[in-house]
Write a structure and sequence with these properties.
- This protein has about 375 residues and is α+β, with helices and mostly antiparallel strands.
- The chain folds into three domains: about 1-55, no CATH class; about 70-150, Tyrosine recombinase, N-terminal domain (DNA polymerase, domain 1), CATH 1.10.150; about 175-345, Intergrase catalytic core (hpI Integrase, Chain A, Orthogonal Bundle), CATH 1.10.443.
- The protein contains 15 helices and nine strands.
- α13 crosses α14 (about 335-345).
C-alpha cells in the first residue's frame, strides 16, 4: 500500500513462522528507510503516518542501528555496571545472557515488537516459572529498551506495554512469642545472639552478617545498619531507607554488652559481630544448612525461612501496639505502602466494623 512517499507491506521472516508489517519511506537524502513495526497493519499505517509527518515538519530523527545482543552488552557496560549495585548488575546480566540474548540476540533492535516479547513471556510461564520469576525476567528488558529510546536506538519501547503477571499473595509466616522462645532455646549457644538479633531487630540476613561492633551503640540502645554482605562482598544496603538505626530491647543490649570483645571502641569498631572463618563474613548458605535448619528441627519449626524472622519482628511490633510509620522506619522499607501491604492485616481493628467506630466518634460522648 502506497501513502505519499511511504509504503506499508507484509514481510515473512526466514523461520517461516513469523510475519510482520513493515513500512518503507524516503528520507530527505533520497535513501529509502525500512522499519519493522509488528503484526498489526493498522499500527504500521499509523507509524508510517507519524514518520511522514515528522519528515514534513523537519522533526524526523535517524535511529542508530544495532542488534539486540550488541546493544545488550553496551547497556550492561555503560549503564548497569556503573549505576546499579553489584547484586542488581549480576541479576541483569544473568537474565540477559541466559534468556533474552539467546532469544533475540541477532535480531535488529528495531525489529522487536511487543507481541514478540509477550510471546517470550508466555513461553517462560509455560516452562513452569512462577509469576514473580517471570516478572523479574522482564524488569531488565524494560529498563534496557527504555535506554535504547533515550540513546536514539528506538523511538518507542516495545516492552513498556507488557503487563506484569499477577503474583499470588504468599502466606506470611511469623512466629508466636512462645515459638520464638522455643527457637532460641534450640539454637546452639554460640549462635543464639545472632538469631535473637534477627528476631528482635528484623535486619535482613545480609545486613546482619555485615554488622560490626562499631555499629552497636550501647549508650543509646541502637543498632546502625550501614552495609550488607552479598556473595562475600560488602555492598550498600537495599535502599537509602535501609540505612537506619534500629532500637534494641534492654535484654538484647545486655547480651551485646556481655558479648562485646575486650578493647577500646576504636580497637574493636571494625570487627564483625559474627565473623566466619578467617575473620571474614559468615557464609550464609553454610550457616543455614549447618546451624539454622537443625535448630528449627529441634524446635519443631521445620519449613521456616530465615527471612521469616524479619516478618516475626514486624508482627511482634504490631502486637506491642507500634504505629505503621515506626515499623517502616525500623524495617527500612522505602515506602509506607510496602509496610501496609505486607502487615496491615495484622493491625488491631483492621477487620472491625467501620460503622461501629464511626458511631463512637459522632455519638460516643453525649
Amino acid at each position: 500500500m502506497m501513502s505519499g512517499r511511504g509504503t506499508v507491506f507484509k514481510h515473512r521472516w526466514k523461520d517461516g513462522r513469523r510475519t510482520s508489517w513493515r513500512i518503507s519511506y524516503q528520507l530527505p537524502n533520497g535513501r529509502r528507510k525500512v522499519e519493522t513495526v509488528g503484526p498489526s497493519k493498522r499500527e504500521a499505517e499509523r507509524v508510517l503516518a507519524e514518520r511522514l509527518a515528522d519528515l514534513r515538519s523537519g522533526g524526523y530523527r535517524e535511529l542508530t542501528e544495532a542488534t539486540f545482543e550488541g546493544f545488550g552488552h553496551k547497556w550492561l557496560s555503560d549503564y548497569a555496571l556503573p549505576h546499579t549495585k553489584p547484586s542488581t548488575y549480576d541479576g541483569y546480566r544473568r537474565y540477559l545472557e541466559n534468556h533474552w540474548i539467546p532469544r533475540f540476540g541477532s535480531w535488529r533492535l528495531q525489529a522487536i515488537t511487543t507481541a514478540d516479547i509477550e510471546a517470550a513471556v508466555a513461553e517462560l510461564s509455560a516452562r513452569g516459572l512462577a509469576p514473580k520469576s517471570v516478572n523479574n525476567f522482564v524488569v531488565p528488558l524494560k529498563r534496557m529498551l527504555a535506554h535504547a529510546v533515550r540513546w536514539g536506538y528506538l523511538r518507542d519501547n516495545p516492552a513498556a506495554g507488557v503487563e506484569r503477571l499477577r503474583v499470588p499473595q504468599r502466606e506470611m509466616r511469623a512466629l508466636t512469642p512462645a515459638e520464638v522462645r522455643r527457637l532460641l532455646d534450640a539454637v546452639a549457644p554460640e549462635h543464639r545472639l545472632l538469631v535473637e538479633l534477627a528476631v528482635m531487630t528484623g535486619v535482613r540476613r545480609g545486613e546482619l552478617f555485615a554488622l560490626r561492633w562499631g555499629d552497636v551503640d550501647i549508650r543509646t540502645a541502637r543498632l546502625h545498619v550501614r552495609r550488607a554482605v552479598w556473595q562475600g562482598q560488602y555492598v550498600a544496603p537495599k535502599s537509602e531507607r535501609s540505612r537506619r538505626a534500629v532500637d534494641l530491647a534492654p535484654a538484647l543490649v545486655e547480651r551485646l554488652r556481655e558479648a562485646r570483645p575486650q578493647g577500646s571502641d576504636e580497637e574493636i569498631a571494625g570487627r564483625l559481630l559474627f565473623p566466619g572463618a578467617g575473620g571474614g563474613p559468615l557464609d550464609p548458605t553454610s550457616f543455614l544448612r549447618r546451624h539454622f535448619t537443625p535448630a528449627l528441627e529441634r524446635a519443631g519449626l521445620s519449613g521456616l525461612r530465615f527471612h521469616d524472622l524479619r516478618h516475626t519482628y514486624a508482627s511482634l511490633l504490631i502486637l506491642a501496639g507500634e504505629h505503621p510509620k515506626y515499623l517502616q522506619a525500623q524495617l527500612g522499607h522505602a515506602s509506607i505502602t510496602t509496610t501496609l501491604d505486607r502487615y496491615s492485616h495484622l493491625l488491631p481493628g483492621e477487620h472491625a466494623h467501620g460503622g461501629d467506630r464511626l458511631q463512637a466518634v459522632v455519638w460516643g460522648e453525649r
